[in-house]
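Support reply, case 0932

Customer input (verbatim):
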Amino acid sequence: MKNNCHDALKILNFYLERRYTNYIVDADIKGFFDNVNHEWMMKFLQHRIKDPSLLRLIARFLKGGYMEKGKLYKTEEGTPQGGLISPILANVYLHFVLDLWFEKVVRKQCKGQAYIVRYADDFVCCFQYVDDAQNFYYALIQRLKMFQLEIARDKTKIIPFGRFASETCRRKGMG
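Our regenerated output:
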């Protein structure tokens, strides 16, 4: 993963133009920042951070809650919206939940080429074969469920792509 959304788009463009991408899984995680599990987050952070004081500070940040109309609301899950560290924590969480799983498990099970491009909680996956895209879609649902997350089914879809896409869509009556 590169530094900004423009870099992510450049990588995606490379996969679309120069790799065998015939199907794209355009995925959206439902309410990601509201549903980050604190217990899992702390386990992920402990892989890289050995300083107990820093870990304790991050845990306090996660549980700090928020103020609305003068009332304090405690948070048992999620990351504080607008918090400076929230995007960093999101990247850590999805690195373990999604990126490593895709590289170590998903790609090895695919018959064809498979790539993931992620920026914060937004990601697309490119596949050579429809079976790989469909298997990933259903495995993604189960994977996210393990970490108390779910896909937004109305926003997540498998899109035929490439030079055969129009014929595939026409054959399946997709327009």
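We compared this against your earlier run and they match. Two observations from our side: The two ends are 34 Å apart (CA to CA). The CA atoms of residues 52 and 129 lie 46 Å apart. Please reopen the case if you see a mismatch on your end.
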